[in-house]
UniProtKB/TrEMBL annotation:
Belongs to the carbohydrate kinase PfkB family. Residues 318-351 are annotated as: Disordered. It comes from Rhodococcus daqingensis. Keywords: ATP-binding, Kinase, Nucleotide-binding, Transferase. InterPro entries: Carboh/pur_kinase_PfkB_CS, PfkB_dom, Ribokinase-like, Tagatose/fructose_Pkinase. Residues 335-351 have a biased composition (Low complexity). This is 1-phosphofructokinase family hexose kinase. Pfam families: PfkB. CDD domains: FruK_PfkB_like. It comes from the Bacteria. Transmembrane segments: none annotated. Residues 8-305 form the Carbohydrate kinase PfkB domain. PROSITE patterns: PFKB_KINASES_2 (PS00584). NCBIfam families: 1-PFK (TIGR03168).
Length: 351
C-alpha cells in the first residue's frame, strides 16, 4: 500500500486560454475543470488509477467537495475533521504549456488536528510499503513538522518519501541525518534550496545531456543520510541517485498542455515501480513516463496506465565517481519519433 499525507489539500480549478496570458487584459476561457488536489492527493489519484492500494490522509470536513470527489472516484481516504473548507487553487494554462498558479494559504491546523493526522499515519504504517509526505504546510503547522513525522515513522516497517519545498524543506534538511527520509523528490529549484547549487544550471546542464551537476548535488544529500534522491528536471528528464548508483532518464519530446501535477505523477510512478519490484533504472523510467504523460494532459488531469509510454523514456546508467553519461540501458531504447517542427519540450515548472 502507498499512503499519502496531504496536510494542505485543495480543490484545484484550471482555466485554459487560447491566447497568451496578459496582465490586466480580459480573457475568455476555452475550457475549465476542477479536481481534488494537493500533492499527496495527486499521488493517490495516480496510484488508484493504476489499481494499486492507496490511502490519502488529509484534513477536511466530511462534507467538503474535495472529500466528495475522492469518494466519487473510489479513492480510499481518511480525514481529520476541520471547521472550514479546504483551500482553492487556481491554475491558468496557455497554449504553449506555460502554467500560472494562484494558491490560497489553506485552513489553519491546531495541535489537536496535527496530532490526529500523525496518529492516522502511524496506524497505517504497519501495512504500508511507502508513506509519502507531500506538499506545503498549512498555517499552524510548525516548520519542522515533516521532520517530526519522519522521526516518528522511522521505527515502522514502511519507507518514507518527502516531496515539499521552501521553508518546510529547509527545516527538514536542518535535521539531517536524524530526519532524513528514504526518498526525497526535489525539482531543480528544490534541489538548489537543499544543496546551494544553481537551479538554472542544474536544468540547463541536464538538458544538454550532462546530468553530472545534479548527481553531485544529490550525492551531498546521500552523505547527509538520505537513501535516494529523485530529482525531476522538467523537459530534461530526471536523475535518480541511490546507494546502489545513479541513473539519468531523458523525457521524450511532447506538446505540453499543463505542468500541474507532473511532479506528483512522477513520484507516483516511481513508488508504483518500486512496489512492483522494479530495479532503480526501471523505476526512474516509469517516473519520467508518468510525469511526461501528466504534462501532456489538460488542467489538473492525471494519467492512467494506458496513457503511459514507458518505452519512450531513455535511461542511462552513470558512473557516480565521474557522473557523465556512461552507457545507455539497452533494455530501454528511445524511439526517435519526435519532430521539432510539431512538438516542443515540456516546461520545467512542475517536474
Amino acid at each position: 500500500m502507498i499512503v499519502t499525507l496531504t496536510a494542505n489539500p485543495s480543490l484545484d480549478s484550471t482555466v485554459e486560454l487560447a491566447t497568451r496570458l496578459e496582465r490586466g487584459a480580459v480573457h475568455r476561457a476555452t475550457a475549465t475543470s476542477t479536481d481534488p488536489g494537493g500533492k499527496g492527493v495527486n499521488v493517490a489519484r495516480v496510484v488508484a488509477a493504476a489499481h494499486s492500494p492507496t490511502v490519502a490522509i488529509l484534513p477536511a470536513r466530511a462534507d467538503d467537495p474535495l472529500v466528495t470527489a475522492l469518494a466519487d472516484r473510489g479513492i480510499a481516504h481518511r480525514v481529520v475533521p476541520t471547521a472550514g473548507p479546504v483551500r482553492g487553487n487556481l491554475t491558468v494554462t496557455e497554449p504553449d504549456g506555460t502554467t500560472t498558479k494562484l494558491n490560497e494559504p489553506g485552513h489553519p491546523l491546531d495541535a489537536t488536528m496535527l496530532g490526529a493526522l500523525a496518529r492516522l499515519l502511524t496506524e497505517h504504517a504497519d501495512h504500508a510499503r511507502w508513506i509519502a509526505l507531500c506538499g506545503s504546510l498549512p498555517p499552524g503547522a510548525p516548520d519542522d513538522w515533516y521532520g517530526q513525522l519522519v522521526r516518528a515513522l522511522r521505527p515502522m516497517p514502511c519507507a518514507i518519501a518527502v516531496d515539499t519545498s521552501d521553508v518546510p524543506l529547509r527545516a527538514l534538511a536542518a535535521g539531517f541525518p536524524d530526519t532524513a527520509p528514504d526518498l526525497v523528490k526535489p525539482n531543480a529549484e528544490e534541489l538548489a534550496q537543499l544543496t546551494g547549487y544553481d537551479a538554472v544550471a542544474l536544468e540547463a546542464a541536464a538538458d544538454a545531456g550532462d546530468p553530472s551537476l545534479t548527481v553531485r548535488a544529490a550525492l551531498t544529500l546521500l552523505d547527509r543520510g538520505v537513501s535516494a534522491v529523485l530529482a525531476t528536471l522538467g523537459s530534461a528528464g530526471a536523475v535518480l541517485v541511490t546507494t546502489e548508483g545513479a541513473w539519468f532518464a531523458r523525457a521524450p519530446r511532447i506538446t505540453p498542455r499543463s505542468t500541474v501535477g507532473a511532479g506528483d505523477a512522477s513520484l507516483a510512478g516511481y513508488l508504483l515501480a518500486t512496489v512492483a519490484g522494479d530495479d532503480p533504472a526501471r523505476a526512474l523510467q516509469l517516473a519520467v513516463a508518468y510525469g511526461t504523460a501528466a504534462a501532456g494532459l489538460p488542467g489538473t488531469a492525471l494519467p492512467r496506465p494506458d496513457q503511459i509510454d514507458r518505452d519512450a523514456v531513455t535511461v542511462t546508467a552513470l558512473d557516480v565517481a565521474n557522473p557523465g553519461p556512461r552507457r545507455p540501458d539497452t533494455d530501454n531504447p528511445r524511439p526517435d519519433t519526435a519532430s521539432p517542427s510539431t512538438t516542443v519540450a515540456a516546461p520545467a515548472a512542475e517536474y
